[in-house]
Amino acid sequence: MGLKILNKQNVAETKFLNLVVTTYEDKKGKQKEWVSAERPGDQKAVVIVAIVPGGNLWIPSNPRLVVIKEFRVPLQGYEIGLPAGLIDPGHNIKETAVKELKEETGLDVVKFIRPPTPFVFNSPGITSEAISFAFVEAKGDISGEHLENSEDITTFLYTKEQIKTLLEAAADPGQHLMIGAKSWLIFEEFAAYGTI
Amino acid sequence: MGLKILNKQNVAETKFLNLVVTTYEDKKGKQKEWVSAERPGDQKAVVIVAIVPGGNLWIPSNPRLVVIKEFRVPLQGYEIGLPAGLIDPGHNIKETAVKELKEETGLDVVKFIRPPTPFVFNSPGITSEAISFAFVEAKGDISGEHLENSEDITTFLYTKEQIKTLLEAAADPGQHLMIGAKSWLIFEEFAAYGTI
């Protein structure tokens, strides 16, 4: 009754992304094709949801969410979203979260607020790319000194009210803001409840 | 100081997805390449966050979230997630949400709880694919009669407690559950607050 995978083949290969055609049988037994894009070695990623709590040297009052503005080549412009990075072979989710948060924002992970989520799937119609969300408390000074030459990232620490303002601005097409889909949901929750 | 796009070229083309190489200049003026996957015509999609309220003929007590289990060819298995669909040329977000919810689950949209979100970006490192979240109230009977032959979808109406159980099950690698990344965040919020 269900669908049946018959064959999977790379039709184009590059160092970073392959185009894959999977042949499958539909519910009536008819042969069909599905095209997807896959990272060589199925490299996974971590998305870092980081909060800098209030009541300390850095942030006197309300907690702030760590937001980045990053140039994204596929978008040909800046995305507003969350720190993230690929998990290198031999590394785990937590190590990668600590390393990427430092590299992209200059901030240090103080602790993991809860265990990282299992790997979940970004856009299963297009790719099997999987990510884990790591929820962390962070501290330190914002810095771009650890960025690579191909990374163009600015970090912001936003209160709940600032996130609300950002969401309102993004709803205005004239502002041309590009926001990550997962980030949007985190922003909505932070704007509503002030927590992650 | 920033990155500069120089050129964009399809290196492989299929009916559903193209592989694109974008040449850009990094911060030091060095020429580099970024590979992404793009739908021809940049077709966008809508993700439907649907709730069936309690206190009526269908659901006597607590509100339920509409969850689907869908065979995803790129995953070679079932994803647990939310109804979604591509926006056909000439159609808008709301029309597509109504049509896709009906096709995938049999349910009818009663009303839009709030305006659909602006288009946000699923996985900007891999693709410029953009989606809008439509938050709706739904009613009716679950049915698979509107499914296409290439769609293998089962619909569930889950309470907050059932979503909690689902998230706990997914955290156990032995269960091999595959959950959508955006769905995960919606599930976490529904499990915590019982709302969308």
Termini separation of chain A comes to 41 Å
Class from helix and strand fractions of chain A: alpha+beta
Individual helix count of chain A: 3
Low-confidence stretches of chain A: none
Silhouette of chain A: elongated
Please give the number of β-strands of chain A: 12
Largest sheet of chain A: 9 strands, mixed
Biggest interface in this structure?
A: A-B, 72 and 72 residues
Return Rg of chain A in Å. Answer: 19 Å
Quaternary structure state of the chains depicted: homodimer
What percentage of amino acids of chain A are in beta strands?
A: 35-45%
Structure in words:
The structure is a homodimer of 196-residue chains. With 196 residues, chain A is an alpha+beta fold. Helices cover 19% and strands 39% of the residues of chain A. The first copy, chain A, is built from three helices and twelve strands, in the order E-E-E-E-E-E-E-H-E-E-E-E-H-E-H. The first copy, chain A, has helices spanning 93-105, 160-170, 181-193; strands at 4-13, 18-25, 31-38, 45-52, 64-72, 77-81, 84-86, 108-112, 120-121, 130-139, 153-158, 178-179. In chain A, strands 4, 5, 6, 7, 8, 9, 10, 11 and 12 form a nine-stranded mixed sheet that branches. Chain A has a three-stranded antiparallel sheet with strand order 1-2-3, with no helix packed on it. In chain A, strand 2 and strand 3 form a beta hairpin. In chain A, helix 2 (160-170) crosses helix 3 (181-193). The N and C termini of chain A lie far apart (41 Å). The interface between A and B is large, with 72 and 72 residues.
